């Protein structure tokens, strides 16, 4: 497959290397000349069968690509999309919010096969220097599937591609993805910030803080502009998710005021204790699903993922977790 | 020193072993015959200079003790205190809440030298089988100091004792301790429970959850009755601490509704990011303090701790952190 990767940071750089190693023809581009130079050197030094190219101009990579991967930060997307006007191949992206990107693509392109993507892979480090072709092995890679919008053949092509890199292809609508990452990834950063604030002005508390504080606040040390961009970029989903957490905390708060706080708290805490003890899901069942949008979306909603696409029998191979969130 | 340790679980068992190894005469007791048997065998097998004894009856340990350490769970304290009627030596405890214990002691005993204690040491495991004489090395050990109540000589004796085990003696009033652990240890368990709840009913979110969820919810898997007893037993302090967190989260929630969520969140998140990056305090300054209640309490409020007691010069050796919670 001819793949153009636009943006050669941690994700884009890792993806270019992984795709080239998987036998695809990869042409990369980055707006930063220094990054292009570093990437070009690395691409030329790769083993013969994993060589790839780095273009000097954006329009050069668009020409013969069958698939364009947008691996630039959200703020850079409109500018890049504007340069892709007229491209009629497949387009995907790797940004961490999917609803807003879906809107941007609609405004700038008329593509039959845009499949929003989000590989749940990351590192403490960033930039091409941290690129790693093995970054996606075993990671969940959300591929957006919109009923009456996404072309299923395009989605299946993306599923073939990401599963060939060892990733788990997770079907979800953009709205479902944004709701899920708001609860699973964005709200945790806000809770960590609030917990840190509760101790920051109390040196005695900071001196007595131990494991529960250390782990509960770890991500609060993330650069504030990154947490703000992540949560702000998904504000429509983070707001309701945070409302749910506030509701739970308000119920716990009320239990503390009763005549028997310990007795009132116990039943409120039992379900979350069981759910956390059962996370992550220990085992999954291998299943085969037809090439149908509804069947794929149901799989994603059940916490499952696609492991491969069988063209001969026109099914996908998938895994459905046996227990999720403590429930069977 | 003749020390009686009542309750031979993880903390009591570790303390009996640590005190014996430090050269004190230790007589232990546990209400559970099986625990007494296990402890007696372990005590007899200890190296000659670290031998200690296990008594068969509670009243036998009280007799010649200069110090009684109450290492039983909070619910068992009233019964044990009732049996100590008439004892006029020093009494301390190791329970994780100090205001309620202070009240219990007042009701049952007239001791001039009760010094509430809380070693911030723990393990995943519990019971005498998990006892470890090195458990207290480097840990913060709060020793309660109440103006116009605690006898300073008794407090200094306890400071000598716990610092001789390698612990950091942290001076604080019972109220200050309970407020600090509410924010640093109890509220984190409630936030972890609420965050788990937000994902427990969404299998897709559970499947996409990664590091920030894993760390932010780790302690939610604690047995619910333990979290309930911990938070319920300190409800008077946990309530206000949770109110503070709810206030911060409500401000963050409001920022998400504005026209520029990212821009509104950034300044709200900057202080906690700096505070968490500066925690734990990297360095401390060695200081000497007079034997004065106010000087010791000020040290604790500044996040400092006592490392030793100098009888010749009538000062305590202490460490005052240079930065706490991100502020110098």
How would you describe the overall organization of this protein?
Chain A is of the alpha/beta class and 328 residues long. Chain A has three domains: 2-136, Rossmann fold (3-Layer(aba) Sandwich); 178-270, 6-phosphogluconate dehydrogenase C-terminal fold (Orthogonal Bundle), CATH 1.10.3660.10; 285-326, no CATH class. In chain A, 48% of the residues lie in helices and 17% in strands. In chain A, the strands form three sheets. Chain A has a six-stranded parallel sheet, with helices on both faces. In chain A, α4 runs parallel beside α5, α7 (174-200) crosses α11 (235-257) and α11 packs antiparallel against α12. The longest helix of chain A has 27 residues, at 174-200. The interface between A and B is large, with 105 and 105 residues.
């Amino acid at each position: 497959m001819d793949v153009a990767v636009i943006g050669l940071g941690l994700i884009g750089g890792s993806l270019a290397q992984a795709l080239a190693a998987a036998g695809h023809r990869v042409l990369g581009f980055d707006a930063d000349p220094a990054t292009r130079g570093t990437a070009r050197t690395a691409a030329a030094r790769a083993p013969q069968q994993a060589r790839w190219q780095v273009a000097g101009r954006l329009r050069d990579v668009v020409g013969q690509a069958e698939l364009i991967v947008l691996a630039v930060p959200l703020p850079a997307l409109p500018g890049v999309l504007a340069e892709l006007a007229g491209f009629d191949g497949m387009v995907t992206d790797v940004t961490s919010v999917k609803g807003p990107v879906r809107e941007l693509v609609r405004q700038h392109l008329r593509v039959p096969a845009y499949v929003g993507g989000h590989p749940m892979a990351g590192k403490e480090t960033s930039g091409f220097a941290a690129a790693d072709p093995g970054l996606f092995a075993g990671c969940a890679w959300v591929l957006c599937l919109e009923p009456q919008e996404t072309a299923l053949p395009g989605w299946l092509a993306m599923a073939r591609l990401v599963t060939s890199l060892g990733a788990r292809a997770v079907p979800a609508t953009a709205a479902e993805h944004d709701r899920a990452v708001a609860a699973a990834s964005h709200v945790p950063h806000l809770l960590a910030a609030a917990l840190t604030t509760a101790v920051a002005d109390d040196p005695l508390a900071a001196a007595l803080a131990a494991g529960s504080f250390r782990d509960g606040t770890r991500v609060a040390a993330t650069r504030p502009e990154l947490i703000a961009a992540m949560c702000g970029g998904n504000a429509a989903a983070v707001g309701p998710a945070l409302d749910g957490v506030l509701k739970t905390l308000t119920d716990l708060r009320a239990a503390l005021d009763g005549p028997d706080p310990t007795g009132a708290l116990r039943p409120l805490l039992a379900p979350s204790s069981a759910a956390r003890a059962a996370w992550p899901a220990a085992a999954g069942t291998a299943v085969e699903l037809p090439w149908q949008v509804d069947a794929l979306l149901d799989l994603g909603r059940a916490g499952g993922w696609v492991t491969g696409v069988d063209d001969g029998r026109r099914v996908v191979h998938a895994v459905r977790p046996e227990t999720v969130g403590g429930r069977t």
